[in-house]
Model the fold of this input.
Amino acid sequence: MTELEGTATGRYIVVKALEDGVVIMGLTRGKDTRSHHSERLDAGEVLVAQFTELTAAIKIRGRAEILTDTGKLVSGL
Ligand code: TRP
Done:
């Protein structure tokens, strides 16, 4: 068993950038919340990701279409 096995929850989220420069930040799980990774997407690029033991939440800056198991929405103004 590798150190990464068992860390992902199985649920995927999909983020599609609707403009250049959309930023997706991964926020740590636990008592402190810090941004541990950021990923920049240009228009049309898609990120498919899972929550893990390290990542409890994500923050998205910019206009993007977001699909999760709770629904679909568009971020940004
Ligand atoms: N460190 C927080 C936690 O594990 C991360 C978090 C989860 C969070 N959900 C959030 C941060 C909602 C802001 C908003 O609980």
